[in-house]
Specification:
23% strand, 40% helix, 481 residues, 6-stranded mixed beta sheet, Aldehyde Dehydrogenase, Chain A, domain 1, 7-stranded mixed beta sheet, 23 strands, Aldehyde Dehydrogenase, Chain A, domain 2
Length: 481
C-alpha cells in the first residue's frame, strides 16, 4: 500500500481531502508516495498557527534556536544517504548528487545554527548631545515560502534555516511535483524541538494554496524560487497586498560560459559539460550558452562531443549513471520543443537530443549540443531548463563579453582563460550576480550569498550572512541619557 503523507499545521499532521502521487521519473511505475493536496482553509489555518506562535518564538533566546537548528543539522547529516536516495527517486538527480544535496542541507542548518549566536547590533552616539542610538535587527514576522522542484531539499533548507535562526515563523509550500524531500526536512526540524506552529507545511497546487499564501494579510514576507513568469506574479501580489509584503525572488538564467583561445582545453570542456548538462541541465545556474573564441572553437566542440559520448544517461539510482532523467513529461516536452526551435532557426545539432529508452520507463533525454548559433536565436535568449546547450562563435574577448551580457538574465557567468588580465576584467564587467573563473557556472557554496541581477533575481540575496537582509528588519532606537 502506498504511504500517505500529510500537511503539518500547528505541530500536528493534518489530512487533506485529496492527494497527489509522487512519481519516480526514472521509473514511472514507481510511486514514491501519496502527498496531501492542501486547501485554502488549511493554508489559512497554517498562517494562523504561525501568527499564534510568533510572539514567543520571536523572543526566544539564541541558545534555544541554536540547539534546535543544530539538532536538525545533525539528523540531516546522519541520514544524508537515505534522504539523498529519496531525493533522487522523486526528482531524478543521480544518487551521488542527491546525497550531496542532502548533505548540503545539513551544512546549511549547521551554519545558521551558528548565526543564531552571531546576530549583533550597534550602539553609536547621536549627533545630538546626550542622546544614544541603538541599531538592532528584529524578525520580520510570518514568512511564506514557495520552493521549486529542481533542488527539493537544499532550497527549502536555505530558506527555512535563516528564517528560524532570526526568529521568524514559517509556512512553506513546496513544489507539487516533488514534495517528498521537503516533507522529510520539515519532519526532522519539527522533531528537533521546534514549538508548535513555528514551522508549517502545506502541500498542494500553487493556484490554490500558493495563491492563498500570497494573498493572506497576516503573511509579512514571501521568499520564492521558480520561473520568471510566476516570479513576476508573486512580486505583483506582494506589492499590491495590504499591507505590502517584503519579497525575495530567485528566477531564471541563461548563463554564459566564455572560452578564450588561451584556455586550458580540458578545464574548459569539463566546466562546460558539467555546468550545462549535469543535474540534467535543470539548474538555474546551468551554462546553456557556450561563447567560444574562433581560434579554439573547433577543438572545443570536438572535445565536448567526445566528452558527451562517455556520459551515461540512465536510472538516477543506478551505479555508473552520470545524468538522470528529465523530471517529468511536461519538462521533456519543453526540452524537445526547444531542440526543434533551434533546428528551425538554423542551429546545427552537433550531438544528441534524442529521447532514450532504458530498462525502466522514464523521461530520458540525450544531452543536446548545438553549434552555428547566434545570440539572437531563441535558443540563446530563453531558458530551456534541460540538458541543452549551444555554442556561439566569437572573434575576440570584447565580443564575448558583449554577448555574455546581452541577456535579460544575470545570475551566473563564467570564463575559461589563462589570462589574468581577461579573468580580472571579466569578473569586474560581467553583469551577473556570481562569476566563475575556470569553473562551471553551476555549483556554489552554502556560506556565501547566492543571487543575480536583471531578470534573474529581485530583492535580498539568499544564503550566508547576507540572508539576514531578507529575514530581519532594522530598528533604530534613540534614548535621552
Amino acid at each position: 500500500m502506498t504511504e500517505m503523507f500529510k500537511n503539518l499545521i500547528a505541530g500536528e499532521w493534518a489530512s487533506a481531502g485529496n492527494a497527489s502521487r509522487n512519481i519516480n521519473p526514472s521509473n514511472t511505475n514507481d510511486v514514491v508516495g501519496e502527498y496531501a493536496q492542501g486547501s485554502v482553509e488549511q493554508m489559512n489555518d497554517a498562517v494562523a498557527a504561525a501568527k499564534a506562535a510568533f510572539p514567543a518564538w520571536s523572543r526566544s533566546g539564541p541558545q534555544e534556536r541554536y540547539e534546535i537548528l543544530k539538532k536538525a543539522s545533525d539528523e540531516i547529516l546522519a541520514r544524508k544517504e537515505e534522504l539523498g536516495r529519496l531525493l533522487s527517486r522523486e526528482e531524478g538527480k543521480t544518487l551521488a548528487e542527491g546525497i550531496g544535496e542532502a548533505g548540503r542541507a545539513g551544512q546549511i542548518f549547521a551554519f545558521f545554527a551558528g548565526e543564531c549566536l552571531r546576530l549583533s547590533g550597534e550602539a553609536i552616539p547621536s549627533v545630538r548631545p546626550g542622546v544614544g542610538v541603538e541599531i538592532t535587527r528584529e524578525p520580520v514576522g510570518i514568512i511564506g515560502m514557495i520552493t521549486p522542484w529542481n533542488f527539493p531539499i537544499a532550497i527549502p533548507a536555505w530558506k527555512i534555516a535563516p528564517a528560524l535562526a532570526y526568529g521568524n515563523c514559517v509556512v512553506i509550500k513546496p513544489a507539487d511535483l516533488v514534495p517528498g524531500s521537503a516533507w522529510a526536512l520539515v519532519d526532522i526540524i519539527q522533531r528537533a524541538g521546534l514549538p508548535k506552529g513555528v514551522l508549517n507545511l502545506v502541500m498542494g497546487r500553487g493556484s490554490v494554496v500558493g495563491q492563498a499564501l500570497l494573498q493572506h494579510k497576516d503573511v509579512h514576507a514571501i521568499s520564492f524560487t521558480g520561473s520568471v513568469s510566476t516570479g513576476r506574479k508573486v512580486a505583483e501580489a506582494c506589492i499590491s497586498s495590504s499591507p505590502m509584503k517584503k519579497v525575495q525572488l530567485e528566477m531564471g538564467g541563461k548563463n554564459p560560459l566564455v572560452v578564450l583561445d588561451d584556455a586550458d582545453l580540458k578545464i574548459a570542456v569539463e566546466a562546460a559539460v558539467t555546468g550545462a548538462y549535469f543535474s540534467t541541465g535543470q539548474r538555474c545556474t546551468a551554462s546553456s550558452r557556450l561563447i567560444v573564441q574562433a581560434g579554439i572553437h573547433d577543438r572545443f566542440v570536438e572535445a565536448c562531443i567526445e566528452r558527451l559520448k562517455g556520459v551515461v544517461v540512465d536510472d538516477a539510482l543506478k551505479s555508473g549513471t552520470h545524468i538522470g532523467p528529465v523530471v517529468d513529461q511536461s519538462q521533456l516536452d519543453q526540452d524537445l520543443k526547444y531542440i526543434q526551435i533551434a533546428k528551425d532557426e538554423g542551429g546545427k545539432l552537433a550531438w544528441g537530443g534524442e529521447v532514450l529508452k532504458r530498462e525502466t520507463p522514464g523521461f530520458y533525454l540525450q544531452p543536446a549540443l548545438f553549434t552555428e548559433t547566434t545570440n539572437a536565436m531563441r535558443i540563446s535568449r530563453e531558458e530551456v531548463f534541460g540538458p541543452v546547450a549551444n555554442v556561439i562563435r566569437v572573434k575576440d574577448y570584447e565580443e564575448a563579453l558583449t554577448l555574455a551580457n546581452d541577456t535579460e538574465f544575470g545570475l551566473s557567468a563564467g570564463i575559461c582563460t589563462t589570462s589574468l588580465k581577461a579573468a580580472t576584467h571579466f569578473k569586474r564587467n560581467s553583469e551577473a550576480g556570481m562569476v566563475m573563473v575556470n569553473l562551471a557556472t553551476a555549483g556554489v557554496d552554502y556560506h556565501v550569498p547566492f543571487g543575480g541581477r536583471k531578470g534573474s533575481s529581485y530583492g535580498p540575496r539568499e544564503q550566508g550572512a547576507y540572508a539576514k537582509e531578507m529575514y530581519t528588519t532594522v530598528k533604530t532606537a534613540y534614548t535621552l541619557a
